[in-house]
Recover the amino acids of this structure.
């Protein structure tokens, strides 16, 4: 079962230090790359040919068929519903209502979702759910917006929706072709694994993923239909960023700050991707050990590096670039810091 | 603020692979060492002179004064209370009751605890707390048993307990000296940082930490008083392992399986330590990026390596050595595997 590519993934570079007191307690390594839609490499660290699963960073591509099949227009999706189709939401009440609204538009409810169940990412929402005596359902699952959109795509395609999540279902095959079109990668069985929410996730070289985001952000190098769909997804997310993640979440905070200037999407196992349309850039990074705390700080400093910023915007990003670590009494105990290569 | 030692910590070795489908999705690196109480090095990987904070792996040493000050006998601690003094408990109801019982023996309650608040580690206990409409208190904090024991030590010493958690308090100074005695390390201000629960945590070379566990397990190379106290702590933990962690937790499962044959204690940021008294070994390991999922699998395989096992015991450890990864629908999606050097 070993993949020769996985043993020759090259050298991850140390990118993040976790400080407590006067010493470095833990270290994170990874790979990153920023490219133009032509594929031209602007900057890289580590070995950006490393192959990794896109995980939730693939959601923007997974949402393209919502637009291109006409589902969004036929079922009257508003911006919030389009944004949550691209989102890894925190399971707060309005997220749940929005997913229910999408399902209602095709006469379905939460029972049609096959993403599985987890408690809301948002701690307050999880606590409130408990206090109300209710258990979470598939609706609170962070992928439920994506899954609701898959059901709507199946309806728009006129195919049975029951197995919408299986790799061989027309919806997932359509998603695969979209991802191939944007990234230039070839996605066969060897690249297909099962995501947390049970739909396929795809293994893509990190540089191809960055390339996909560059094209997603600029519309260049892809068919007009995909470029227009991407633009609509970006506009919706920029107008309704809370639905892409949620209260206090990085992707939401960044897109609330920058609107259409930054489209950013996190993925599990330390993946972070972004499109900077005005700069014509796509960015993809992978923390080698899968740590989200590292990937997020790296993405923050890359936004500082590439996005022209007003002084107030620079100040607003500082808490993401060098997060303070606090303990259970809220005492400051340490910091996450980027290494020399990134500072 | 940089510590030259931290930049020359040497090379962590790749120890764990996280597989999804046919590729390695993430990788964990670290250091490990097994030593005899003489300090003789039996096996090592990486750079075991690396300095790391002991975090909760220090709890066995932090509990020594409970015995040596006579607090345990004076206040009539049972085995469960002694075990929870060494523990990072899951905040289940019986854990909370036990901590309350310890505090009650010195006429105090949860309001005396300065560890701060977090929801129970145990998901069912957290959900039940929510359903009951209650918020967690310091009692549910995984360190509350340790903190209750500190308060009892203060009482036994006849000193004011209010600031028991501060580095300059007699209780914390006593703990520092115990840790120095067991590990042979010198612990000054530069080695002192603030733990999650606000008491000091100490930076110790990993090999010294292993050395401390070897002495803790065998009683060799330390004053009789410390050797006897360590034996009593180990016996209590072996008799009441659920109080050292909780339902479904590795430390509990291992000590339920092996009793006094293995004393194991986890610490935050990927630290795991063990004493194998019958084999005369102390083990310490640190996952360089801080991942508990990696540290746990490495500790499991080291137990397999060094502890003579019956076939049934070998089989019982398999699920820790090569954990299966499941998604929100409980589908098997991947595995955690040890690298070649450890297999």
């Amino acid at each position: 079962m070993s993949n020769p590519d996985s043993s020759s993934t090259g050298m991850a570079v140390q990118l993040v230090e976790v400080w407590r007191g006067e010493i470095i307690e833990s270290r994170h390594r990874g790979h990153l790359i920023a490219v133009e839609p032509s594929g031209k490499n602007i900057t890289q660290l580590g070995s950006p040919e490393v192959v990794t699963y896109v995980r939730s960073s693939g959601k923007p591509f997974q949402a393209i068929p919502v637009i291109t099949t006409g589902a969004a227009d036929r079922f009257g999706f508003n911006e919030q519903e389009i944004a949550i189709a691209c989102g890894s939401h925190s399971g707060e009440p309005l997220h749940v209502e929005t997913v229910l609204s999408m399902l209602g538009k095709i006469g379905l409810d939460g029972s049609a979702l096959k993403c599985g169940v987890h408690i809301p990412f948002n701690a307050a929402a999880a606590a409130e759910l408990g206090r109300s005596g209710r258990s979470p359902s598939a609706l609170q699952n962070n992928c439920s917006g994506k899954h609701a959109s898959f059901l709507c795509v199946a309806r728009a395609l006129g195919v049975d929706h029951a197995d919408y999540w299986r790799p061989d279902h027309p919806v997932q095959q359509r998603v695969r072709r979209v991802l191939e079109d944007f990234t230039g990668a070839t996605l066969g069985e060897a690249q297909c694994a099962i995501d947390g929410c049970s739909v396929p996730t795809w293994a893509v070289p990190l540089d191809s993923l960055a390339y996909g985001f560059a094209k997603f952000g600029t519309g260049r190098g892809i068919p007009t239909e995909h470029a227009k769909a991407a633009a609509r997804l970006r506009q919706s997310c920029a107008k309704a960023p809370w639905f892409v993640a949620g209260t206090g979440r990085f992707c939401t905070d960044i897109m609330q700050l920058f609107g259409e200037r930054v489209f950013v999407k996190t993925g599990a196992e330390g993946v972070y991707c972004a499109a900077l349309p005005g700069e014509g850039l796509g960015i993809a990074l992978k923390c080698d050990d899968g740590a989200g705390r590292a990937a997020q700080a790296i993405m923050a400093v890359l936004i500082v590096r590439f996005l022209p910023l007003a002084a107030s915007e620079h100040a607003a990003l500082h808490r993401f670039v060098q997060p303070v670590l606090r303990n259970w009494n809220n005492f400051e105990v340490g910091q996450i810091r980027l290494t020399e290569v990134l500072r």
In short: The first helix of chain A runs from residue 4 to 7. Chain A touches chain B through 60 residues (CB under 8 Å). The first strand of chain A starts at residue 13 and ends at 20.
